[in-house]
Amino acid sequence: MAMDTDATALAAAKERYRLERDKRLRTDGNNQFVQLEGNFPNFDNDPYADPDFTRDPVAEQVDAVIVGGGFAGMLTAIGLTRHGMRNFRIIEKGGDFGGTWYWNRYPGCMCDVESMTYLPLLEETGYRPTERYASAPEIFGYCQLLGRNFDLYPHALFQTEIADSAWDDATKNWSISTTRGDQITSKFFVLAGGLLHKAKLPNIAGLDEFEGHAFHTSRWDYSFTGGSPTIDMDQLGDKRVGIIGTGATSVQAVPKLAEAAKEVYVFQRTPAAVGVRNNGPVDPVWFENLEPGWHDRRIRNFTEVVTGKEPDEDLVDDGWSQLMSVDCQKNTEDPDEIAELERLDFAAMDSIRQRVDDVVDDPETAELLKPWWGKHCKRICFHDDYLPSFNRPNVHLVDTDGLGVSEISARGPVIDGVEYPLDLLIFASGFEVTTDLDKRLGFDPKGRDGVALSERWHDGAHTMHGVLSAEFPNMMIISIVQAGFGTNFVHFLGESARHVAWIINECEQQGVAQIEATPEAEEEWLGVLYSVVGGVARYSQFCTPSYYNSEGSRSAKAARNLVYVESMIDYVGFLERWREAGDFPGARIEPVA
Ligand code: NDP
Q1: Would you say residue 41 has pLDDT above 80?
Q2: Fold of domain 201-277+330-427
Q3: What is the fold of 59-198+433-591?
Q4: For 11, how many CA atoms within 13 A lie in the half-sphere containing its CB?
Q5: Three-state secondary structure call for residue 458
Q6: Which of 89, 280, 463, 583 is most buried, judging by how many CB atoms fall within 10 Å of its CB?
Q7: Sign of the C-alpha dihedral, residues 323, 324, 329, 333?
Q8: How many Å lie between the centroid of ligand 1 and the Cα of residue 236?
Q9: Structural domain boundaries of the chain?
Q10: How many angstroms does the Cα of residue 543 sit away from the middle of ligand 1?
Q11: Per-residue confidence band for 1, with pLDDT thresholds at 50, 70 and 90
C-alpha cells in the first residue's frame, strides 16, 4: 500500500516537474541575459577599488602570464613557485586577490561548502577557519594571506585587463598588452579568469528606464545601503527594496535585507531548494588534533561523497553530503535502478519541500516557495534564515509563475499589470558559466595565424581535458567547459592549477617550445564527454532551465560546451593518467630549436 502511495506521489511529482519546466523553457536560452557593460555602463564599475589608481606601464618578458587573481590564478602561481618558477605575472581586473571573494561582498555572503574542504592549502598555512561555513570577508582575507605567504603580490598587476593577446609563431611567445599600457611577452598564457565571474542581467523591457537605484549583487553599493560586509546596513530603514532572483546569492542576501529595509520584494521565477545549514564555530582542539594529510583526504572524501562514490566514511557529514550522496543522474539503463534513483531523488526533494511547510507560516506563501525540480537540476542552497524571512511582515514574495520579471517601469518591476515601486532594485541574477569563453574573459586571444578564439570556437569549445586547445599553443584554460565540475569548486580549481603548473614545468624540463592539443585528441575528448552524458540527458528531461544546462539551450554550441558530468574524481583521474604518461599524449609539441 505504502509502495502504491509512493508511486502515485512520485508520478504526480514527475508530472509537476515537467509542467514547471515547460513553463520556464524559452527559445533565447543564455541570450535572455545581457552583460553588465554595453547598455549599462555603470553596472560593471568596481565599487571597491581606488578609481584614481595609476601606475607606470610594465614592459617585460616572463615565463607565464596568468589571467585572474582568484583561487585558480593564485593556485597556478603557487604551483609554479613549487616547481621553482618565479618569473610570472598575474593580471587581475580587481584591486586585490580573491576573485569571487573580491567581488562578492553582499551582506550575508558566505561559503556554502564547508570551509575546511573549500579553503585551499590549510595545512601549509596552518590557518583555522573560524566557522564551518566561513563568511566572505574571512575568505577574502584568506586569499590575501595566501598572496602574502606565497609572495604573490610583487607578481600582480591589479586593476588591469588584457587589451590584446596574440601568439607569435616566430618567437614562440604570447604578446600581451593591457588596458594600462603594459607590453608583456610570455612563453605561457594561463586563462584563469573565473568560473562564474561575468555577472549578467536579465534583458528586461524597460530596464534602462528604471529611475531608482540599482546594482548587481557582485557590485554591492554600500554607499547606498549603508553598512559593510561586516556591519549591518543602516540606510534602508525607509526604503523599498526589490531583489530579482532566488538562487544561492539571493538566499544569503534576503535575510540581511529583511532585517534592514522597510519593505523587501523578492521577485521569484523558480523557487530555490533550501536545506538546513547548521553553521557553528570550528573547534580549535579538534582542528589541532587533525593528522597530517587530513586536508587532501577531506577534500577528496567530500567530492567522493557528493558524487555518489560511496566511500567508507563521510568526513564532512553535512547537508550536502546527506542530500547528494546518491547520484540520481547515474549513467545506467537498468529500469529498476532508474526507478529506485527517481524514488530517492523525489524523497530528498520532498524533505526540502516539507521543510518549507515546517518553517513558513502562511500556507499560500509556503506553497509558492516549494521547488518542483530534481536535486541535480540546480545548485541546492543551505540556509537557516532565508525561509523564516518570509514570516516577517515587511518581506513579500512576488512569484511570477515561472515567467520571471519581464517588464520594468520607471518606478519598478511590473508583474501581471501590478507595478512595484522601489527605491532600490538588486539583481541577484547570477553569472555566465557556459557562454563563449572570450565573452566571459573580456578579450579574444588570437592563436596561430591570428585566428581568434571566437572564430576557432564558433561552434563551441574545442579542447583536450578543457585545458589545451589546437591552434593556441602554450595557452592553458581553467574553466569548467569540457572540464570537471563539482560541488566544491576550489577542489576543481586546485586540481586544474596543479595540472597547468605541471604542464608548464614539464615543458621547461623537457625542452618543449610549444604545446597544444591535436584536433584528433580534442574530438576524442569530446567523445569521452559524450560517452558519460546519458544519465544526465535522461535526468535533465525533467529539469527546469539553469546555468547547469545552458538555460535549457539545445544549440550545437551548447552541445559542445558541456562539462564532464560524472564524478570530478574521475575527471581528475584523466588528468593524473595523462601526466603519468609523461610524453603529453594527444598533444602536438615542438621542441626548442
Ligand atoms: P543563479 O544563476 O543561481 O540564480 C540567478 C537567479 O536569477 C535565479 O533564481 C533565476 O531564476 C533568477 N532570474 C534570472 N532572470 C530572471 C528574471 N527575468 N526574473 C526573475 N528572476 C530571474 O545565480 P546566483 O548568483 O544566485 O548563484 C550563482 C552561483 O554562484 C551558485 O550556483 C553558486 O555556484 C555560486 N554561489 C556560491 C556561493 C557559495 O557559497 N560558494 C554563494 C552564492 C553563489 P531561475 O532559477 O528561474 O533561472
Answers
A1: no
A2: FAD/NAD(P)-binding domain (3.50.50)
A3: FAD/NAD(P)-binding domain (3.50.50)
A4: 6
A5: coil
A6: 463
A7: negative
A8: 23
A9: 59-198+433-591, 201-277+330-427
A10: 15
A11: very low
